[in-house]
Amino acid sequence: MISFLFLACSNPETIPEGDIVGKLVVPKAAATRTVVTATDADDDGNLEYSTSEKTDLRLLGPIYIGAFAGIDNISFAYPHPSMGPVISEDSRGDTFPYGGISVGRLDFACYEALACKVTTGRFSSYDDIIDHFKNNLGRPIYDQYGVEVTSGEAFQQWCFEYFDATADYEMSFIGADNLSFVEEGDNFVAEFTLNHTLRVEGMAVWGFMDAPELRSDVPDTNGNFTTCASDGGREVDEYVTEFHEGRSYYDVLNRPGSYITYGDWVSDGEAVVHFDEDLKQTEEVVVNLNIPFEAEE
Which burial class, exposed, middle or buried, applies to 147 when counting CB atoms under 10 A from its CB (0-12, 13-18, 19+)? Predict the structure, then answer.
């Protein structure tokens, strides 16, 4: 019995799961949009809108990255992970990802007006969020009483009250040290790690960005993300407020084609991972998010 236990504990087999590290490259063109600025010149609540073109890191939505068996270049108008059987006409096949992560995730930033509209790793401060919503999306932030939020101090104090917090570092959606990207020439670049991922030689690493909705004709919908379930997340029912904080859908990487819409950006599908005999990654994986999806709206 002792010999048996010794042999069982000295199993030399390599664990098939491990971390995959890589670099995400996003062209600045993906963060270049026609933005909408809202102005209340007479301070009477009637907003006027103007537009301009701007390149702004804050216009990058959550970027979902996964490891897959392969890439399908036929079924969609862009490279897409290989899928399993399509069981019904109204359902996409499952991609069965080996692992996945997002560079920036959807987070709740204290106000009902911001549910499903804030991505982590994009904002350095509360004022940064206020400015983005008013001058990029044309949607000033209003609190639960219909009063416009115009100062970072007011934003901060409400967040502290809402989350029973005492410090800004408890707010995962802000912080200069929490920004996901750095500028490199014409690109924004970020490092990522696919944690505890099944390691399969030659597997594809692919991703897409869910870009925020941004239209000058319907500013009320600006900032929405198709990957966010507005009826999900924690339910809030207090005093004058009743809403859900929102969350990402659970199957975004299983059925990405169901969520990719006009204005989103997709990787080229050329990133693959190679391992040595001990399943150690042999070279850097670079995911280039360089294909805009420009189908008609």
Answer: exposed
Separation of alpha carbons 288 and 270, rounded Å: 8
pLDDT tens-digit map of 42-85: 777 788 999 999 999 999 999 999 999 999 999 999 999 999 98
Nearest Cα neighbor of 99 from 210, 21, 190, 211 is 21
Residue 62, φ and ψ in degrees, nearest 5: -60, 140
Phi then psi for residue 211, to 5 deg, are -75, 145
Q: Which residues pair with 214 in a beta bridge?
A: none
Backbone angles phi, psi at 170, to 5 degrees: -80, -10
Which pTM was predicted? 0.92
**Do the beta carbons of residue 251 and residue 100 sit within 8 Å?**
no
Closest CA to 287 of 59, 66, 122, 70: 66
* Domain residue spans of the chain: 15-292
State the Cα–Cα distance between residues 177 and 69, nearest whole angstrom: 35
Q: How far apart are CA 243 and CA 15, in angstroms?
A: 44
SS (H, E, C) 51-104: EEEEECHHHCCCEEEEEECCEECCCCCCCEECCCCCCCCCCCCCCCCCEEEEEC
pLDDT of 111 over the 80 cut: yes
